[in-house]
């Protein structure tokens, strides 16, 4: 139940156990704590943790790792330290999951050097890294554009007989593409085939994105057709990359065709796809089309509560707009244009 996010049902069953004088054990609490963490209800998870302590049920390494992982993902450094102190007091050894969760927490806030220190400490304390540990560090190094560090770790994996998985390859390929190392990226794609780990849509999306950003749209289209021909279905992220790439490289007509095909096929278009088209229209001086697209976004509920970062300059052409509702747009960083007759702007 907890793994399927049916945490309320699971908690009701737990309450029924208690009512019937059936004592929950560490496995019961672990399942519930993990379930609450999965649905981001950390307060409830901590309440259960404290309750099991009061009932003299000793948490095990799984209990602590669940809390460490959740606190790290939430950026709650103080709470993580408290959990680690408690682990040490209870003589519970940190294992590869504990260290990896800590590394992941640091990488999420771009403190990759601290994550790397944890990685090295783990080895010094005799804890063997696994593929997840390496994946975290490889992705972390790629994220801060230290691709050489990621490549070194990738080679180290081979020396330690740790088999890279699709996540390893995709993280490194993405980093290589963003660093302009296309030849090495393609070598890894071939290697994936050779090792029985065929590239997936994430792999191809990484390469497609790099080709589009390097204004190599012809090869991007060829790649798109190639992997579709292999039966690999693009997702909305892939389509958005292609639409954006076409719009920015003089292929607005083709971008519009792809966009309209997605609508006909019933795809649930996201704000990024709409924004790519709006920017495409604006850059080509087609303000009426841009405003029509903006209107469609509003009709579909995309103009409030979403995660776009920029409102385009073409808003200056919106002479009929008197109010703008940007409530819940917490990621909005820039409004490039303001409608000339705007009387009310809400951005709560």
From TrEMBL:
It comes from the Eukaryota. InterPro entries: PPR_rpt, TPR-like_helical_dom_sf. This is Pentatricopeptide repeat-containing protein. PPR repeats lie at residues 25-59, 60-94, 95-129, 130-164, 165-199, 200-234, 235-269, 270-304. Coiled coil: none annotated. Pfam families: PPR_1, PPR_2. Transmembrane segments: none annotated. Keywords: Repeat. PROSITE patterns: PPR.
